[in-house]
Amino acid sequence: MNLLWSFLNLIMLFSQLPISKSSLISDLFDSWCEEYGKTYASEQEKQHRLNVFHENYKYVNQHNADANSSYTLSVNAFADLTNHEFRANYLGLSPSKSDSVIRLNSRSASAIDGDNLIKESEIPSSLDWRNKGAVTAVKDQGSCGACWSFSATGAVEGINQIKTGSLVSLSEQELIDCDKSYNDGCNGGLMDYAYDFIIKNKGIDTEEDYSYKGRSATCDKNKMNKHVVTIDSYVDIPEKDEKKLLQAVATQPISVGICGSDSSFQLYSGGIFTGPCSTSLDHAVLIVGYDSKDGKDYWIIKNSWGKSWGIKGYMHMVRNSGSEEGVCGINTLASYPVKSSTNPPPSPTPGPTKCNIFTYCSSGETCCCARYFLGVCLSWNCCEAESAVCCDDHRHCCPHDYPVCDTKKNLCLKKSGNTTVSKPLGKKSFSAS
């Protein structure tokens, strides 16, 4: 990205030229496409994306030219999307009018009595839960609007590490597929409902076992019944109570709702974000700490848009802004899980995968029919990928995260936003044996 920005600075004076007369903008766009692996279905689509990229580039330049701004923007991975497209594909918090009633009356929600929080007199001046081993690596929700699930698992991962000493990455896909009482998978949800699901389900599976697909799928009941990490209840922090929010963050990572739909949020790259932005909540993130710099206090926020956004996937957002709601409404919808009981013992090691009464594949493999007769499978092959897609040629398969077979081009494909991403079919990784 440093090389790209060096190039960007060289063409700053040309940013107002029409695209047709600015080969430098076109070259920058080609470099950007190469860096982020972007391809387009047609030249017409590519030209449209170039136009969008150019508008975002001008917006970035205009903002970064303001010496008084405490944060910077960049032509990041979302720079070929209009703000409308970005809003439609990368958000997913769904607070409704009834949420305040549900949050107050949920049988799982604990009273705010402060018993489980650090004392106010013991709150440190700064804190980063990443340095204490309570935060997993930045994840990427892709174009699935399931930010609520990433925020919820992040909070559960944090309290589990604090209580047990073990950092375990947990399954957002289980919440997307199986938590259907109120949440709606990639179409949006709320962290409280996710906590309630984990409590009622008596635990949640790991990311490794129930891996992320980037789309809603059928609930895997066997994996849903693997209760690796448990919680006992959850707490809703009073709305607009920034002091209580700070006390909670000093105790553990905290889920929050924010407005993440503004263009400056979309293209954020570093510094202390001060807005302006709406307080209409549409996105969910995780507060993992707080600090101060140059007289400005800020929250450390973990997002779920991959490491190419922001500060390697994080944002510094101003706190003590003087607004009760907080910048982007960060003080208005905060909650966290409570854990007091121990986790259940590990589940037994998975056994072989059964194809039929006579045929088995190894654990973690997928059975693919190699030969049919009158709708009956006469012989089986074993795909070296779990929950894989068996191709129509009965000789190849694709991993679940690249679910479209193109046997003519020897590729496994998936849709990512407005682009198609591919992996080669290959015996070692994806083909049936």
UniProtKB/TrEMBL annotation:
CDD domains: Peptidase_C1A. Residues 355-412 form the Granulins domain. GO terms for biological process: proteolysis involved in protein catabolic process. Residues 1-22 form the signal peptide. GO terms for molecular function: cysteine-type endopeptidase activity. Residues 123-338 form the Peptidase C1A papain C-terminal domain. Residues 29-86 form the Cathepsin propeptide inhibitor domain. GO terms for cellular component: extracellular space; lysosome. Keywords: Disulfide bond, Glycoprotein, Hydrolase, Protease, Signal, Thiol protease. The keyword Zinc does not apply. Belongs to the peptidase C1 family. This is Granulins domain-containing protein.
